Amino acid sequence: MNLSLIDISIVLAYLVLTLFIGFWLSQRASKDLQAYFLGGNSIKWYYLGLSNASGMFDISGTMWTVTIVFVYGLKSAWIPWLWPVWNQIFVMVFLAIWMRRSNTMTGAQWITFRFGDGRGGRLSHIIVVLFAVVSVIGFIAYFVEGIGKFATTFFTWDLSTTLFGFHLTSEQVYALIIIAITTLYTMKGGMYSVVSTEVLQFLIMTVACISVGIIAYNKVTPEQLSAVIPNGWTDFWPEWKLNLDWSKTFPELNDKIGADGYEMFGMLLMMMILKGIFASLAGPVPSYDMQRVLSTRTPAEAAKMSGLTSLVLFIPRYLMVGGFALLGLVYLKPELMKMGANIDFEMVLPLAIRQFVPVGIKGLLLAGLLAAFMGTFAAFINAAPAYLVNDLYKKYINPDAHNKKLVRYSYLSSLLLVMVGLIFGLFAKSLNSLTLWITSSLYGGYAAANVLKWIWWRFNGMGYFFGMLGGLVASVIVPSAVRFFYPDAIDIYMYPIILLISMGASVVATLFSKPEDMETIKNFYKQTKPWGFWGPVKREVMKEDASFLPNKDFKRDVFNVLVGITWQMSMVVLPLFFLSGQYKSTWISLGIFVATSVLLKFFWYDHIKNIK
């Protein structure tokens, strides 16, 4: 498809503007590592919140989300619990406050704050760096797969070529070009550049999302939708079996459901809840989300930033996601059938944009989605070099390195990580396979040790190291071993095995090694103030400081988490109900959103306003 001159001009103008912002901010960002990676802790919390929301609006994730709404209907609202999407609620309610109180630059540096600088602390520090690097490489591969598919739908020039003996398709070349531009402006501007461009991108995407919602509402009637969907597509509440039969209207979708492995929906939901509780309590993985928390000015602002992320993200995003899914269902079957036996349902999003979005809005939407990809990608490649430069090079190799050298090495480490991620991305099978591996296998190895670090005083650096190591090894070996016997098994069902291996390694290594120095543990407890199993430490702290007030907010935090998850889900389903003509459910969702917002105002926001 040939884009109009107006649309091409909008896209090019955005790309030029992002490069300009990156170079314009480079002087501020290159002052030192604190400025480069955290914006000098001077960026206002609402800008960071908009940036964080924008960073979760990536093309790959949006293509995947449109696909699952297209296939699974309103029950698809539960499927993002794979991540889990409600980990942001745990961060908002209490984890952001705990993390920000550390005054550290990275997740690896935080580990030293928790376990000290002894043998266990250093091993834990190194394993977090390793996890951060592996997870960033996995996400870069995930982004490559999505942006290539997306770009070739709109930019039709044949750019296929051979590079260093490898044949690259047009899809891969477009991905390389866009990634090169993103890497360049991120390297130059650091966190300042990432936040500035993502705030701009969020504003563009909000306008585009509302436009898509209006287009879908005007083009798709409830009667048209009912004619092309099977019974149960508009049912929201999960059942033990999925019970979606596409045989009469789109038989190929039954094959898609079988390949995804989601037929036993009740079992899937149970696994997602089990995983979600542990993964959410573990806190953000050492990537862009954690960097936003550590970049805020105060613990209270860290919590408010995380709350704003959820508030501004879901309704606009699902207006667009639901709109494109409905347009695809009603109008795109002939286009998809042209693909023959190899139908790629992840192409619903770009095909719908191509066919239904008018000139001008199309350019704005493409610029926004490109920006979404670039913003999320930029956030990852801003976060990961901090681990290589600050947590490896500066800590172990050259503690006296001057700031210019450290920033220069940050540039080089960004390039290295992007190149490795690109190699993995070029060999990825699909967005769904990458999504499931990242969310289920890799993160399964992260959860156990990172839950225990918050809530158990006796947990030490050796336990953390062996728990993380066991989890990382299991996340690679367990899927291969299980698929040797059950080739169609999906990653989420392997999560309990990986979790048990990691938890067992954590507990055994802790009990067979000495506790950390009591002064280190007391310092962490006094400064962070977590709830959990901290009795011996609490007694020691209160002996020394009778004025110390321990954290007694466990019950309130649990209540706020449950209310927050309901609040978040109401924002997901509200636009889906509205666009699909379920108006009674729309009003119910709106009522739940208002009620939960009021509860959070009194029981969460009023409580955290004055927290230090």
Automatic annotation (TrEMBL):
Q: Name one GO molecular function term.
A: proline:sodium symporter activity
Task: Please provide the record's keywords in A-Z order.
Answer: Cell membrane, Ion transport, Membrane, Sodium, Sodium transport, Symport, Transmembrane, Transmembrane helix, Transport
Quote the subcellular location field of this record: Cell membrane
Q: Which residues cross the membrane?
A: 6-25, 45-72, 78-99, 123-144, 164-187, 199-217, 264-285, 306-332, 364-388, 409-428, 434-452, 464-486, 492-512, 558-579, 585-604
Q: Name the predominant localization.
A: membrane
**Single GO biological process annotation from the record:** proline transport
| Tagged with keyword Ion transport | yes
Q: How does it sit in the membrane?
A: Multi-pass membrane protein
Q: Which domain of life is it from?
A: Bacteria
Entry keyword annotation includes DNA-binding: no
User: What reaction gets catalysed by this protein?
Assistant: L-proline(in) + Na(+)(in) = L-proline(out) + Na(+)(out)
The record ties this protein, via Pfam families, to: SSF (PF00474)
User: Cross-referenced InterPro entries, in alphabetical order?
Assistant: Na/Glc_symporter_sf, Na/solute_symporter, Sodium:Solute_Symporter
The family line of this record is: Belongs to the sodium:solute symporter (SSF) (TC 2.A.21) family.
Protein name, entry field: Na+/proline symporter
**What's the source species' lineage?**
Bacteria, Pseudomonadati, Bacteroidota, Bacteroidia, Marinilabiliales
